[in-house]
Every structure is written in structure tokens, then in C-alpha cells.
Amino acid sequence: MEDKIHKLVPNGSCRDINIVVLGAKGVGKSATIVRFLTGRFIGDYDSQMEAIFSTNIPIDGKQYTINIMDTVAYVPGKELKEDPVFWADAFMLVFSLTDVSSFKAAQQMVDYIRRMREDDRMPILAAANKSDLVHLRTVSSADCEAWCLDQNCLSCEISASEDPMSVKTAFGMLCHRVRVINKKREKLSWTLQRPAVAAKLHLRQSLKNLAEKKLWRSRTFTF
């Protein structure tokens, strides 16, 4: 697996998707990334490694370059690094179904991302890992789904060690959400650039400015 380091700048290409994978220590972030990129499962990783890997996949019939950043373990109560937060087009928050504290850490990360990006539509997927360890499960599906619905997050259960398809599906869901949102933004941008629409918006703004000017004069006269 080739490590391709990218400059941390906003993504300007509609055919590139930057994904940051976040999570507490031991939840399987690196294992999930490697499983997606290579199909292999490796259980032991350097928890202090931070790197970006790239691969090409088809999404809705078009080829996209997916840049995936593996991050160091998130420590609850500690702020995330700003560069990855603003570089990302989407986030995958991995937590363990056998560790309630990792689920709470994911909740904190969502709050921080929403606050920093100031965008409720920012694609975030909560990936509940270790679904194969049923006998050790401490986080219920109902709790996960209710929280994700409230936070406008995608959600799925995966097993990096036992179920490669679940990992592939998770990344596919997230990439598709990015594509849908980008298409809506491109359509809105194209609409706003049309001469008739631009002229209407200009007129509306001029009328608003005129009304505010008259209101200011009226208040000044009253004083």
C-alpha cells in the first residue's frame, strides 16, 4: 500500500474526495483503512502514525480519487487538529461496539467538527466497528441509530477483521453522500451565475439596501 502524502489544502477538484478517519485508541481505524484499500486485515499498527493514502474507485459510473487520512488516536476532551478538519470533504468516525467510551468520543468529535466547519450538511459517517464480537457488545444499535439520526450522520456497523464488504459499503456510502452534496452545490452555483438570476438578486439587494437607508434616515429624523 503506497503512502501518498498530500498538501493539506481545501479540495478544489470535483473528482477528488478527501476523507479523514477519526476515532479513539484501539477502535480499528487503521485496520478499517487497510481492509478497504487492500482487502487484507492486519491487527497491529503504530497508534502514532498519521498518513494519507490514495486509491481510485468508481462512484455512480465516474472515477474518483479517494484520499484517506489515517490519524492518531483521539483523546476525549482534547481538540482535534485544525488542518485535517478543514482539509476533509467527509469524515469517518470509527468507534468500537465493545467500548462505550469510544462511542462517547465519537459524539464529542461530531460536536467539534460541526462547530469548526459551521456546516450541518458536512458528510459524517459513524462506523461502529467490531460487529463480529457480539458477546462483548456494550453499545446498542438503537442508541447508535438514534444519535446518528439526531446528528444528521450516516451510520453503519462494520467488522474490519471479519467482514470486508461492510467496510467497502461504509466508504461507498460516505463517498456517495459527498457526490450528492457536491452536485447540489454545483447546481446552485450554476443557477446563481445565470444572468437573469444574478440580475434579480442584484435588484433584490439594491431594494434591501434602499429600504435600510430609508429606515436609518427615518430613525435619525425621529431622534
From TrEMBL:
Reactions performed catalytically: GTP + H2O = GDP + phosphate + H(+)
Highest taxon listed in the record's lineage: Eukaryota
PROSITE patterns per UniProt: RAB (PS51419), RAS (PS51421)
Enzyme Commission designation: 3.6.5.2
Keyword tags: Hydrolase
GO molecular function, one term: G protein activity
Family: Belongs to the small GTPase superfamily. Ras family.
PANTHER family referenced in this protein's UniProt entry, alphabetically: RAS-LIKE FAMILY MEMBER 11 (PTHR45704)
Name of the protein: small monomeric GTPase
